[in-house]
Amino acid sequence: MPSLKRLVIQDFRNIAFQELSFSEGINCISGNNGEGKTNLLDAIYTLAMTKSAFPVPDKFNVRHGQEAFAVGGTFAMEDGTTARFAIKANLEGEKKVFRDDKPLKRLSEHIGTLPVVMVSPGDSTLVSESGEERRRFVNGVLSQMDSEYLAAIQSYNRLLLQRNRLLKDNVTPDEGLLAVFDARMAPLAEAIHSARAAFTKALNPVVQHYYHLISGGNEPVSIRYESDLANGPLDKLLAARRDKDLALRYTSAGIQRDDFLFEMDGYPVRRCGSQGQQKSFLVALKFAQYSIMKDGYGFAPTLLLDDVFDKLDMGRISNLIALVAGKEFGQIFITDSNKVRLSGIVDALTEDRAYFDTVGGTFRRIDV
Length: 368
Fold this sequence. Notes:
Elements: E1 3-12, E2 15-21, E3 26-30, H1 37-49, E4 68-76, E5 82-90, E6 95-99, E7 102-103, E8 116-119, H2 125-128, H3 131-145, H4 147-169, H5 175-215, E9 221-226, H6 234-240, H7 242-248, E10 259-264, E11 267-268, H8 269-272, H9 275-297, E12 302-306, H10 314-324, E13 332-336, H11 339-347, E14 353-359, E15 362-366
Parallel strand pairs: 3-13, 3-14, 8-12, 12-13
Antiparallel strand pairs: 1-2, 1-4, 4-5, 5-6, 6-7, 9-10, 10-11, 14-15
């Protein structure tokens, strides 16, 4: 598995410049809220995924007063070689990814090279917000594991944007041209729908397994996939909705409307789950993602755990740590504002660990 040995960050959020070396095991980052712990983890995530773990444009990740940010890392790869990766982005929206100092032609060439899973308080939007957040999560997982899925979703989104522009900008859109868009989008939509359905089927039992281990509870949890394509091929759906699309002036059917419903005892987790149950469900979801990606790659992804103990009682924290301590996990980064709690937990697990203090975007390795 790729293991991050050395990281260099420049002008990313509140981090002016930082160079750090890490343990192959567990890396613990402590500090008060707002000091930069999450920013460090998001820099690692951005290096792996070419974008932030949070739905913000790159320009908002550039440190105030600067023109661009850069993140670079040296990795021990799963084949025994060493590779250097870097990402640079500026306020104008230009972004480049490099491998061993050579620029890649497309960002998509890099996605999946450094598999990563991040668990953070921001995951609460998967429960509380619209289906867009849940689609973003599923796209992020499948895009890392399947380059054909990534190409299909990129092509579909381009065609959807063009179709919507045709509907919006023309009083009487060319229906022949609309039919061409429909025919080109249909096979892409079918491939995406099939991949999402298969992923949901594989995900369900793994989420249930981890939820039970973390919560200790017996309440059944599940994920249900809803899609317009359950009612037929996209081109036929769009043909049947042609008058509606012309009136609305946007595309009213397709995989851009898909949703993944999180349920507990048959009811939405958002409505019936306590804070602890919702947090347990979300952690179980991300651990299930981790497990599926590990099986798919044949090695463990990097695991980023940001403030993961928040809103969990000590029983759930103990269950969670017992999972992290398992041999199936690889390199892990954990943040927590409680340094004593973090060291007390990790010291009991392994000697292969490193500790870092955080103050104002500056990180200092601590010898223990």
